[in-house]
Amino acid sequence: MEYRRFGKTELEMPVLTAGGMRFQASWNAAETDKITDEGQANVAACLRRALDEGITHFETARGYGTSETQVGRAMKLLPREQILLQTKIGPTETGEEFAQHFEESLERLQTDYVDLLAIHGINTEATLEKTLRTDGCLEMAEKLKADGRVRHVGFSSHGPTDVIVNSIATGRFEYVNLHWFWIQQEKWPAIAAAAERDMGVLIISPNDKGGRLFDPPARLVGLCEPMVPMEFNDLFCLRRREVHTLSIGIRRPEDFDIHLRAVGELHDDGAADLVRQIDERLRAEFRGVLGEEYCATWSEGLPDWPDVPGEVNVRFIVWLHNLATVLGITSFCKDRYGLLGNAGDWVPGKPLGQTAPADLAEALAASPHADRIGEILAEAHEMFAGKDGKRLQSEE
Description:
CATH architecture of the largest domain: Alpha-Beta Barrel
Largest sheet: 8 strands, parallel, barrel
CATH topology of the largest domain: TIM Barrel
Number of strands: 10
Strand content: 5-15%
Radius of gyration: 21 Å
Helix content: 40-55%
Structural class: alpha/beta
Order of helices and strands: EEEHEHEHEHHEHEHEHHEHHHHHH
Distance between the termini: 24 Å
Mean pLDDT: 95
CATH class of the largest domain: Alpha Beta
CATH superfamily of the largest domain: NADP-dependent oxidoreductase domain
Oligomer: single chain
Number of helices: 15
């Protein structure tokens, strides 16, 4: 295992994190009766494997149903002093409410402190403002840190880059959890901002939100050969030293295998050359399929979803259409499209739905591809509609 200094926390962070979202027996934290002996034994085996491989960072969240309880039970069988434990709690209206949620999380985790506590889901400016209120949840998290019950305070975000950068600019967080991987690179300025403030950087869900890479289509497999897509994506992310760890959501102990192979290749010159070749091959495929000029300018002039009739999230939908057209990751795109209108600020805006592309003409007028974008939206709706998604409790 390789370890990287996790910014100003000074923690030695493994480049792989054991993510606990998929451990849950139920999305309802109270339904602990649904935790079977077999399921709990599997969680214990996953975390035992992680620790044996040097993956000392375990992360879960209050919003992950029974996951905190299951991680806590498994940790009773492991040496707590060797583990960096993170949980995440969503912003609350008051500090007192946040403290109550924290106490519940500690009880489930069967520990008297956590190494890392994240304010979970600062996705909008309004949520950031709520987090920063006097006597609010961040102030309470800082009090818990002063009391020694929390070692380090950070935040997670699925929001736009400017919200993440503004959260970082407050100077009140020690680390950030965010999305950044090959298919979604536009948030690099947020990582750069975190690096400037010496913050730890954890990449959320590179396997799932990175394109459902655990179940890749043949087209993507071929483009990534001789690596497999998860291996390539791991190395693509970890070649940037500003990135400290990838949260690997696993279901079985053997799910670590590909990622451990990638870690073993981090300092292999041949693997580094392959990553560069695959990166360029993927970019060339986009240019070849969609056109070079379109690839360079497709997002220019596209309005934000609140400014679009029907609150259609045009930019998000066009991005999904691009991915499905070039990489064939249609299942991923259907899942994400189905969340529009169903996931609040975690996946904001709405699908095309009953809004006719012709109704969007004025909103799309600033796009150099206005005529094409209308056609793409209609085609995307035909490709992806029919499955309304339901956001996972914390949508990691």
